[in-house]
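Below: protein 1.
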Amino acid sequence: MDQRKERSSVNRRQFVKGGSAALGATVFGMPWQALAQGVPNEFDGSKFQLKAPEPNAKSGGVLKYAITSRPPHFDFHQSGTINSLGSQGCMFDNLVRRDPRDSGKTIIPDLAHSWEISKDGQTYTFHLREGVQFSDGAEFASEDVKATFDRIAKPPQGVMIPRSTLFTTVSEIQAPDKKTVIFKLSEPRPASFMMAAFASGWNGIVRKKTLEDNQYNLRRVVDIPGTGPFKSKRRVENEIWVMEKNANYWNKGLPYLDGIEFYHALPFSPELGSAILSNRVDYARICDPVTARKAKDTKGMSTTAFYQSVIQGTWMNNKKKPLDDVRVRRAIHLSLDRPVLVDVVKDVAPMMMGGMIYPFSEWATPLDQLKKRLGYQDDTAAGIKEAKALMAQAGHPGGIKGLDFLVRDVASFKLWAQAIQAMLQQIGVECTLRTVVESVWFDDIKTGKFDLAIGAIVSTLLDPSDYFNAWYKKDGPQNYGFWDNAKFNELLPQIDREVDVKKRLGLIRQAEEIMEADPPVLPVSWEKINDIWFNYVKGHNPYEYFGIYDCVRFDTFWLDK
């Protein structure tokens, strides 16, 4: 069956569609604007059962899956990299989840089989499944959901969770009995936004006792008990993580696979491409475009490219001189030749140019308009001239020497860093590249041990209320440059609350103007992901994914061989 044409038999008008409070998104078949104004909603999915999209799916076999899997630690809630969730995700379930059979466009039941949303949009009640166990044999109950989301929404001291900004309006979480969880909101949000937040693949449920036993910090816990379709069997650092089937999984008939072997390979690397083309693995994620073209022309193989929920950026440390000067930051922003940066990695990673907003979303300034701005033009002469003037105004007519440029050890980042280093020299800015592994990069950027730093950060939703709060807001969990703009911080709550589409778009444009004048990050590029697999790998539909962080369960995968 052509997976691009697949549609499950579920009546989708009953489930959440869209995935964010984006233009045109719907929930239960109704416009999200209407829901935001208080239309009552409820859903009973107690009889819903997830199965593979193809008939007569076979059980058995071990999937060999190649993906970068060098986690900085093991607390996936605290993580912001696929190095964590890519291999760990299959061990956990969500409260609700995205349907893997339609590229995650629909939200379906998971540990919660039913739910209701109050008329005022401020109370979400979820009813949980009976008979669910954690991999350590403990009974799953509402206290585990409450403990998980209490930590996500309001992280304790010493814990940083990038998705906490999705739940800023959650004022209280109640567990009145073992199988009921109630979320109270201090003010309403669009129902599509909230349900998409709950369904994020990052928000897997962990056991309350596991959190308590580890002082609510799971960074050093390799095998975190989950309720998911697979459990950890064996792990070798930087080589392989072997998962085995959870024989007590609550969704009878799933998973089909006996296990998964996650082989570590760096994104876009020749080693990753070689592994899939030689059939040493069955499926490979984040492959380079050259390998994807070869796979497309190879009988028995398939490939696709989909948008990734990531910005490739360079952060400037606003706490350090001279980068604490907005004129210097704006000058550096204008000095980048973004069309060239896309071209530099064309054979390594599929990229596209964009500004501070997802360029493929309805909220973005159209590309033809964006390319008229300084910093995005094909001819960079005007941008460089303005950048030099700004440097002189800031007291640096001769430039700046000795900046520490922190670089993640990934092929695309290393290429970009060299190109950016050369571009900055045009305005007299000189820096030294310091390439480090994933864990060191995250540690150094969080502690401010850098001047410039190139890497990538992720969002959960396309909606600006997600990533504006996480990436750009003062003290946002992924505001790695420590950016603090009073006008932006004052405008952001208005964006979050506004349910009128035209008014909200106007506010977003105001925020964009602020960020162009005072850049919180240097947008380097926006990404697509190449997946490659052999056609005997069934039960998945990656053609229209938004990102690689939601459909990470593998419970519907099966091998037709």
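Below: protein 2.
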Amino acid sequence: MRQSDGMRAGLAKYRPKMRRHVLPALLLGLAAAGVAEFMGWPFLERPLERALSAALQRSVTFTGDAQQPALRVHLFGGVSLRAGVMDVAAPSWSDAAHTARVQGLALDLRYGDLWRAAWGGGLNVRRLSADRLDATLERLPDGRATWQMAAGDDAAGPPVMTFELLEVRAGHVRYDDAPQRLDLDASFALRDASAPDGGTARAAGLHVEAKGRFRGQPMNVDVRTGSVLPLLQTDRAAPSVTVVLKAAAGASTLDFSGTVVDALRLAGLSGGYRVTGPSLGAAGEALGLVLPATGAFDVRGRLTRQDAVWATVVDSASVGESRLRGAFRYDASSAVPRLEGRLQGELLKLADLAPAIGAPAASAAPASADGRVLPDRAFDLPQMRAMDANVSVDIDRLDPGSLFAEALTPLRAGLQLSGGVLTLDKLYARTASGTLAGRMRLDGRETRAKWDADLRWSGIRLEQWVKQTRAGGDPPYVSGRLSGQARVSGSGRSTASILASLQGNARLQLTDAAISHLALEAGGLDVAQGLGVLVSGDDALPVRCAAADLDVARGVVTPRVLVIDTDDSTVWVDGSVSLASERLDLRAVVTPRDFSPLALRTPVHVTGPLSAPQVTLEKAPLLQRLLPAALLALVTPVAGLLPLLDIGDDARAGQNGAGCRALAQRARAAHGKRQPAGQPGAASSRSSSMASP
């Protein structure tokens, strides 16, 4: 008790002295703080530079001039920071003067917001603005980038921040992305406020104008958004923001109008678009998709994105004269992206897809100046391995080209791309009262593509399918129902090289057929009967049998059997067609069944390049008739006609016809064994189709 009483007595003795010292010290401190507040706490400049440099692992400095000090900080009523110029240095490997330079920086924070952020809540920024922002953003091929600053940023993720006022009055960004082959020079301005701030009213949003090059092509971009603040929120429930984008890369253009939740990741993207350009392949390369090379296109539709999945409904797509539509889903979440969907359309012209196989577009000049006609542009095989796909094709009408009178109506198929192997299976089409079915595959896993096809056609009426319009209403040169099958394969880096290595077999049969009488007599050089047909008018001769059995080896097509048998004559064709050298070497021999008073009867040769074939007559048999005729004509003109008389060779023609019919019967039997199941019209076409055994 006595000790406690002594302590209380001592404190009471010194209390007046403590009051006399503390109060002046407090007043002195308040005065010093007032002076520091008035001066802007200048001694905090260097500690703040060191703290920011350590946090960003990049040198940060503040500088100023006579009009604007380097840094002013005010702490009364909240944290307020004003900087003349703040520089964030570039990394040592970059030649840029800085990564970012901010002029006229203003930052305002409330203590209550800082308290909540210290306890794990998001940081609310009352104001962040700049008079000007200049940035240089670079990314090297090895992945190093100027925006990669503090270690561990990618793992931790950016802090959750909200803004009441965000403004950059004038901005400039130089962006050089080597992996994407993108080099842009952009100017921008942005302003947004969540509440009135008493400043001059301006339109809220972000406006970016950029020019540069993308993958070697000139590029222009114009982006306008509505409110900017929701774009900075990481919450999935953040409100969406309107976005209007106009971009041009080379000759391709993109117009998009819609909304987005996360502009940096394009999350929650939804809107309508229009894409135009000279080729779908070029546009697909820009988007990271594997699309075929085509003619000029104009695509309009609607686009959405959720996480790594893009989805689009193509309302209309014109490719050349083709008119298409469809719905597709592109999933980029796995190592190999995958495209799924359905391609539909009213019309697809094969000429519009000619560049996909290396051929020039329909409106373009011939691809080769040396007369070669087969497309020889190399395939882009690495692109085939960049994506998988599963797309169903359902086209109302496919136009195969100007040589054909009827289109394929409809065309259905399944397209699969997996591991660099492109397969077109379940192929089915109807045309000219007949059907086409089969499968094709292109294997692009190695340096040389491997191609194989198994195609079957049945009951196609030639007079309806192949254009044979003749003056005066004369009958078509050839009519009848064409059936057959081709099983071929090859390899190469282009369409031409694949055809040059082609191996396989093809068989064809013509039933219910007829052939032009004039063409047959002209082929047999029967002058008398040909003149008679010209005078009386051409007619159609019924064909007893027409069949072909073609071998293909190393790009050379050789007929084992190619014969047309009629009541008038039998035509036998031999020789070869080389797809490697693109040259013809065919020989046609006509054996007549009937008598003719004036016939030269010599084989006809078709030779030369595919681009300009030449028709010539075999001279030896021709001279055997013409020389005796000339000598006998010296005796008497009537005698000169004797060597030109042709009594016909019905026995030989009959042998050729019998061989034709045997081949056709064997083909029909083989087709009956191999008729594919599940194709429409399979049962009704059994009797008139053929396939290889």
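The mean pLDDT is 77.
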